[in-house]
Amino acid sequence: MSPERYQRIRQVLDKRQTDLTVCLENVHKPHNVSAVVRTCDAVGIHRVHTVWEEKYQFRRGTAMGSQQWVRQTNHENIGDAMGALKGQGMQVLVTHLSDTAVDFRDVDYTKPTAILFGQEKYGATDEAIALADQDIVIPMMGMVQSLNVSVAAALVLYEAQRQRTIAGMYNEQHLPEAECQALAFENGYPRLFKLCQRKGLPFPPINALGEVDANDSWWKEMQITPLEAKALSQQEG
Ligand SMILES: C[S@@+](CC[C@H](N)C(=O)[O-])C[C@H]1O[C@@H](n2cnc3c(N)ncnc32)[C@H](O)[C@@H]1O
User: Fold this and answer.
1) What is the pLDDT of residues 96-145, one digit of tens each?
2) Does residue 137's CB lie within 6 angstroms of at least one atom of ligand 1?
């Protein structure tokens, strides 16, 4: 990939917030999921958690926008998801229209935070609400009771982004270097990435010019000649 493209990728990955995440509990309409993931990418979320039954899994060909830049972890049930998030020291906020919910703008998002969004029709489950640390609500003044889930996600996430910007949390790299390199390789060199995965080889480093910086034995194991290697290591992206 070109040096410019690599620099652009690094600028984005260097702002990733590893201690801010979203959990989608059975949010399943592709356009909603896609819109939430896109907002997650825009505010610098590295990983989205989902609680999906088999039938809600992504299908090949679904247009997911920014999905290639946002990692996903699926949990079999809400208990597992909550356990994982709390195990990482996160406060878990559930977006829920209840009398006990606090205004979403009154929360401190500079703390390690997971925000749970509920299913389009039924909202968050009782179990999720019981396990969460706090209910948060976006005040509603109109005739309709709730917002579209992706709109709700955008509002809450941009409040988190606002607070974290003020706190200077986008000014330092949080994502481990190996993960930055893996994402750059995966997206910058998709064909090499797939071949590398098929062969079970480690991902090679990418140098400052955006080139694959592998040694001769790696290329040999990939069964790629030095001539092909030169072309391949500069071509994609
Ligand atoms: C369309 S709403 C679900 C409405 C459902 N009847 C309920 O009572 O929860 C889908 C999701 O969007 C989010 N949401 C929508 N409007 C919201 C609001 N005003 N405050 C907080 N979350 C909201 C929540 O995550 C909710 O689970």
Assistant:
1) 999 899 999 999 999 999 999 999 999 999 999 999 999 999 999 999 99
2) yes
| Contact criterion met (CB below 8 Å) for 21 and 45 | yes
What ipTM did this prediction achieve? 0.98
Count, residues in the chain: 237
**Domains in the chain, please, with CATH?**
17-166 (3.40.1280.10), 177-235 (no CATH)
- 193-225 residues labelled b (16+ CB within 10 A) or e (exposed): beebeeeeeebbebeeebbbebeeebbeebebe
Report residue 60's pLDDT band, with 50, 70 and 90 as the boundaries: very low
Q: Among 33, 104, 105, 146, which is best to mutate for testing ligand 1, by the most ligand atoms less than 8 A from CB? A: 146
- Is the minimum distance from the CB of 118 to ligand 1 under 6 angstroms? yes
